[in-house]
Amino acid sequence: MSAQLKIIGCRAGSPMKGNPASGYLLKTPKGTILIDCGSGVVANLDDEDFDNLIGVVITHIHADHCLDLMALAYRKVFPSLSKRIPLYGPPSVAGMIASYDALFGIRTLPTMGTPIATAFEFKPVVPGTRFTVADAWAFDTIAMIHPVETIALRSVEFNFVYTADGAFVDAFLDFCQGCRTLLSEATYPDQDGHDLLEHGHMTAPICARLATNSGAANLIVTHLSDPADSRITMEKIHQEFAGAVHLAYPGLAIELEQ
Ligand SMILES: [Zn+2]
Ligand SMILES: [Zn+2]
After folding, report:
1. Per-residue H/E/C for 33-77
2. What is the pLDDT of residue 57?
């Protein structure tokens, strides 16, 4: 059985024309899972993928990973109410949902008083534990070094890791060990002037070494802080990783074997 990993958006920070912030689809034989819902993601979500959603995962409450959750909730409750689906994320996502619903709920419409709580059933994921979507697709998680509570994901069946945002520590290499496909942030081309542990991000060389040392066959490089750094970022990646490499872009689709 196979699945497809499809990129909707991969911008760090803000969306740009044609490229939303973080949003990734895992298209499985039992439905589609949206991983992160950054700004601009919903406008780039095909109707078919929207209709097939069986779950949403939010890795952390930074805007470039969750701002469009309200837009997605509006789409699920208006003009007609669609099936409620599970929403997974670290426990701190609950506070974001409550605040967002308090701000943007429309009390005069029965389905829109609390759009996110109505559209989704929130299932908190304690970092380090496993959760399973649709009784079929399991994900292991680990807490990342980032300014807010953040989980990285490892798909058990399809053997891929999504780093979300986070600095490298040795425990994270253990988490990635043996993965076939690595979807990794490389926020900065190099360390110049950046406190990686404080900001909680990786550089291109760190991303490449993570791919090499974990034994990944495929590396998808994402979440660049500046698109103008693409060329130098990929040069540095190729210097330290010999496997297949893609620079993420909206529409890129990678086949994942079970
Ligand atoms: Zn980010
Ligand atoms: Zn972040």
Report:
1. EEECCCCCCHHHCCHHHHHCEEEEECCCCCHHHHCCHHHHHHHHH
2. 98
Omega within 30 of 0 (cis) for the link into 227: no
d(CA 69, CA 88): 12
pTM: 0.97
Helical axes 230-240 vs 204-214, angle rounded to 10°: 30
* Separation of CA 208 and ligand 1 centre (Å): 18
Which ligand is nearest to the Cα of residue 62, counting in written order? 2
Residue 1 CA, ligand 1 centroid: distance in Å: 31
Q: Is 116 helix (H, G, I), strand (E, B) or coil?
A: helix
Percentage of residues in the chain with pLDDT exceeding 70?
Answer: 100
pLDDT of residue 228: 95
Here the CATH number for the domain that contains residue 203 is 3.60.15.10
- Ligand 2 mean position to 146 CA, how many Å? 7
Q: How many domains does the chain have?
A: 1
Strands 181-185 and 218-222: parallel
Backbone torsion region of residue 204, taken as left when φ is above 0, otherwise alpha when ψ lies between -120 and 50, otherwise beta: alpha
Question: Which residue range(s) make up the domain with 221?
Answer: 2-257
- Binning pLDDT at 50, 70 and 90, where does residue 1 land? confident
Using CA of residue 177, residue 235, residue 184, residue 192, what is the dihedral sign? positive
User: Residue 221 and residue 186: Cα distance in Å, rounded?
Assistant: 6
